[in-house]
Amino acid sequence: MAGGPVSGLSRAAGLLCAVLAFGAQAAPCPEAVEGLISPQHLVMATNPTLPPLQYVTVDGQIAGMRIELGNEIARRLCLKPVTLSTSFAQLTLGLLEKRWDVINTGMFYTAQRARLMEMIPYEIQAISVSLNDESVLHPAGLEDLSGSSIGVEMGGIEEHHAREADQALRDAGRPGFDIKTFQNVGIAFAALRARQVTAVFSIDAVARRNALQGGVKPILKGLYPTPVALALRDPALAQRLADVLENMREDGTLERLMAPYGVSPFPGRITVSGPSHPSDMH
Question: How many Å apart are CA 88 and CA 47, to the nearest integer?
């Protein structure tokens, strides 16, 4: 039996949706993207040791907020996203040797790095101090952890700020920190759960994730807020990515992508800062 007017309208609406979807898929891609190491591919490198921002799933896939971000940038440029896993120590060298186009690992912006690479600050991250759930300490500030052992990931900004705070305590005539470095932040939190260290310095989102897994709790949050950036070698490609990120900021995509992870977008316009893009950022 033939459908009535309602079913006819439903079929018409479905046909219209299909046409619109096809039109969206068939929309012309932006002009050719220059500066890629592999045509039609956006090759990104990450150090996947910071769940939920970038990590390896149980089935071996690289996942997390920053991977979603990279995939969306590639989609908007009509490029195929390729994400490679590497150690943090290899990221900058690999970029300069043209082994990948982009460092997408939550690299903190510094003026020193911006003298080496084109950097696009797009996110703000701060540091949390986490304690074991069974800790009897109730620090109101870093000075209340004077004399304590602090676990940090080796070579990151967390270690930098831990050593900075340690020196400030010593300069004030107080016991400093006993800073213990680990290969990655996951091992640092394992040490905290085993009560091998008193506290761990990590970025806020990682502290929040570990608290959800149990055994630890962030006590101090939002310390040392710092821009996080993508890093690139090619100035023209960096500008293209900055334009895409600015469009994502303007249309709300960036905030929607970050919100579930407790991450904040960079305030204000997203631009490039680097050797070919002078900036007043410090």
Answer: 6
